[in-house]
Design brief:
Layout: H1 3-9, E1 13-16, E2 27-30, H2 34-40, E3 45-49, H3 54-62, E4 67-70, H4 78-87, E5 91-93, H5 98-109, E6 113-116, E7 119-122
Parallel strand pairs: 2-3, 3-4, 4-5
Antiparallel strand pairs: 1-5, 6-7
């Protein structure tokens, strides 16, 4: 599934990387520890995190993540968005908690639910 489809279905705000939203997402990974994501993040995954500092961009690029979703309504500094934009890395944001976004992403990627008329329904 492409990031663009995920962003639409999960009502995610695009902060950077608009031109790369057609990347395919192979999986999701939730972690607020940079070292954990470096060790376990997979190429093509969508990284869900509360961390919004500049290192997130560098580590996402290093791991070849498809993009990053900032959860929980955290504010993201403009320089972080500019860096991601320069690198072509999609940054997305939501006020929804990580647990809920992860559940919705799992269901989208595994075809168990879909959004119809703005509501989650069994697929």
């Amino acid at each position: 599934m492409k990031i663009r489809e995920i962003a639409t279905n999960l009502n995610l705000q695009v902060l950077a990387g608009e031109e790369a939203l057609d990347r395919e997402v192979s999986s999701g990974y939730c972690s607020d520890l940079i070292s954990d994501f470096m060790a376990n993040g997979k190429p093509g995954c969508l990284w869900l995190t509360l961390q919004t500092h500049m290192n997130v961009v560098a580590v996402a690029l290093l791991a070849e993540a498809a993009g990053v979703v900032f959860t929980g309504g955290r504010e993201v500094a403009p320089e972080v968005c500019r860096k991601a934009e320069d690198e072509g890395l999609p940054l997305l944001a939501t006020s929804t908690r990580t647990f809920e976004v992860a559940g919705q992403l799992y269901q989208l990627l595994h075809g168990k639910c879909e959004v119809r008329n703005g509501r989650w329904e069994q697929g």
